[in-house]
Amino acid sequence: MEGLKLKQIQNEEALIENFCQDCRLRGMTEESIRRYRSSLKIFVEFVRSEEISVQDVSVKILRDFLHHIKYERNAKYKTIENYFSALSALYDYMVFEDFASTNIVLSFRKRYLKRYKDGYDDPERKLLSIEEMSRLVNSIMDPRDTAIALLLAKTGIRRGELLRLDMDNIDWKDYSITLKPTPKRSNRLVFFDDECAFVLKRWLRVRENLSPKTRALFVSYQSLNRLDRNGLYTAIVKYAKRLGFHDAESDRLEDHFGPHCFRHWFTTWLLRNGMPREYVKELRGDSRKEAIDIYHHIDREELRRAYLACIPKLGL
User: Fold this and answer.
1) What is the pTM of this model?
2) Is 125 inside a domain boundary?
3) CATH number at residue 177
């Protein structure tokens, strides 16, 4: 009996590693793969406690797992969604490899997990007004942190996209940035305005005096190497907390302000200021799912003018 259990554990560990290798072949980032692996290991431990294999999971087991992470591990909604996103991807892989007949997680997610992010509507995430965003960025005295906050707000790029930026990704001639390739993004070109240019140039003067060890746009003050995810998160949240925009003790998503809230702010205020939806999609780099998107070309200069007309000014 112990030998069978050991074999099952080895098989499931091999399954996860093979799945992660498949994710790499499909172009997923190492950070996404790391999150998938972490979620799947917790799921496998739960399944083992029920004395069944991953291949024998039923809807009842999925319900029990949802109850476990929601009420026993006190996971927040976004974390729960991440768990089941990883599970759905795993079972999709298992179906492809003929290890399972159907992806049982698909119908389960549809029934039990409310998807709050349809299109651009994200009612649970914190949305600052233009005046509140102005207060936030103007309250930051550190040149690096000001540049980070303003660049996130003015471009709507993701945290990982900002962290991968190098000095030579900026085109000062037309105030644009070419992002590094990523599976999540279609359009890699974003623009910034004169407010953002001002704080970026101020940070670059400070950065030059630091003599960093890297060409990364944003560096850690301690290591002088590329700033990491935790460093960026801390650089943003401490200022939001000081102004009452972030409550770490609350379970409600709308009481938290993190790096992704800038993307929500960017999207919402461009739309409210009249930018056409297809232009917003282009600047966000959303994946093109409809065939018509392939043939709809947006002129770069037209997009830049529309951006400058609609991006809010924050009074720097």
Assistant:
1) 0.63
2) no
3) 1.10.443.10
Radius of gyration of the chain (CA): 22
Whether residues 145 and 278 share a domain: the answer is yes
The pair of structure tokens assigned to 200 is 């970026």
Cα-Cα-Cα-Cα dihedral sign, residues 39, 40, 41, 45: positive
Q: In this structure, are 67 and 144 located in the same domain?
A: no
pLDDT tens readout for residues 138-178: 999 999 999 999 999 999 999 999 999 999 999 999 999 99
Q: Round to whole Å and give the CA distance between 32 and 56.
A: 26
Residue type (1 letter), 224: L
Paired with 219 in beta bridges are: 226
C-alpha 79 chain-centroid distance: 13
Written as six digits, the tokens of 103 are: 């992806």
**Tens digits of residue pLDDT in 264-315:** 999 989 988 888 888 898 999 876 554 334 434 678 888 999 999 999 999 8
Q: Residue-wise over 66-101: b if at least 16 C-beta within 10 A, else e? A: beebbeeeebeeeebbbbbbbbbbbbbbbeeeeebe
Sign of CA pseudo-dihedral 103, 124, 27, 226: negative
User: Same domain, yes or no, for 93 and 156?
Assistant: no
Q: Which residues contact 157 (CB under 8 A, 6 or more apart)?
A: 151, 177, 179, 190, 263
Q: What are the Cα distances from residue 30, in Å, to 24, 36, 80, 253, 297?
A: 8, 10, 20, 26, 31
